[in-house]
Design goal:
With 162 residues, this protein is an all-alpha fold. 77% of the residues lie in helices and 0% in strands. The protein starts with a helix and ends with a helix. This is DNA ligase.
Amino acid sequence: MQTQTHSEASKDQQLDEELADTLTAISVVSKRLAQKIKALSAKEQEKRKEEPQMSKMSELSQVISELKDCGKTLINIADSLTEIFSSTDTETGDVMETPSAPLEDPKPALSFLDVRKKFADMSRAGHTEALKELLKKYGADKLSSIDPSQYAALLADAEAIQ
């Protein structure tokens, strides 16, 4: 009877050791998983921090461009007013009847940022493949390879996609 008790105690001890080893292995795996999740979370937070900054830079660039356009318009208005009030013509009717020619094109030249913004909006709307085909039509693999003189035609073709 003692041998039977001894063998049962030995089996119990073996099972306890196996259980302890299994629990230790589970603990190690859980710790590694927690570390990987933490690292992935940190990377994702880093990406989130960069994204708004990039969009803010893009927004700031657009605001600066619009501010420059407003400045050019103000200069044109000031030049026109100077021309009107420094005219040697004493009849105000003649001055009012003859419109001065605009000093600048009504449509400002398109910039790379304007085209990129339009392409990004269209890509988000699901037109990515069509835009890639359009770039190929213009002989380019990417937008930065397009000649700036072709921006207006490229945008017209892109708007036709929608």
